[in-house]
Write a structure and sequence with these properties.
102 residues, alpha+beta, 2 domains, 3-stranded antiparallel sheet, 3 strands, 52% helix, elongated
């Protein structure tokens, strides 16, 4: 059951589900079961879109995605990370986010 009322006497329903091996959970801030079910359906769609974007960015050769991967792996640890961030932003702006590196 992915929509439930927790045992801590909260007036709100909570959701808990997995998509693609990732767990998503939290409060719906809804007091009726029907509203909570709708909220959970929206959260499932958001989760699927988020996982799809993560998968795309891991394999994409678009300059924006490659720059983001470089920043996460190496760029933020450079001696001057602000300069690296600025230079990556300049490259992306110059070539456009949709430019493939190939």
């Amino acid at each position: 059951m992915s929509v439930y009322k927790p045992g801590n006497k909260s007036p709100y329903y909570h959701f808990d589900f997995q998509v693609g091996g990732h767990r998503f959970h939290g409060s719906t801030e809804c007091t009726s079961k029907r509203e909570a079910d709708r909220f959970e359906a929206l959260e499932r769609e958001k989760a699927k879109a988020q996982l799809k974007a993560m998968k795309r960015s891991r394999t994409s050769l678009l300059i924006d995605d490659v720059a983001a991967r470089f920043w996460e792996a190496k760029g933020q640890y450079d001696a001057d990370p602000n300069a690296t961030d600025t230079n990556l932003a300049r490259l992306v702006d110059y070539f456009g986010k949709g430019m493939p590196l190939s």
